[in-house]
């Protein structure tokens, strides 16, 4: 499976078009199709953008491993920042900057209110 195929598959799993992905990542409109056409790999910075966007490892994108994630642990702040900055939607509608900030505050408050209940002994 090529990197194009993996990105296309991930986009579908996230209910995104390839155009939405390139727009969200601020890449040229045909960037992903050019990967397919040229057979080249993205540079390290762009690979990292794709990996962060889809919450997978760079090794997964490159086909070096089949597991999408390298860790079960997720940093809430990073998760919120990544998702809110890369086109989070609700029922197909983009969130406004104010809605994104409200969501970030609400989820952070819930996390701190209940974090002790989920700690492992």
From TrEMBL:
Protein name: Helix-turn-helix transcriptional regulator
Originating organism: Candidatus Gallilactobacillus intestinavium
All residue ranges annotated as the HTH cro/C1-type domain in the record: 7-61
UniProt xrefs under Pfam families: HTH_3
GO molecular function: DNA binding
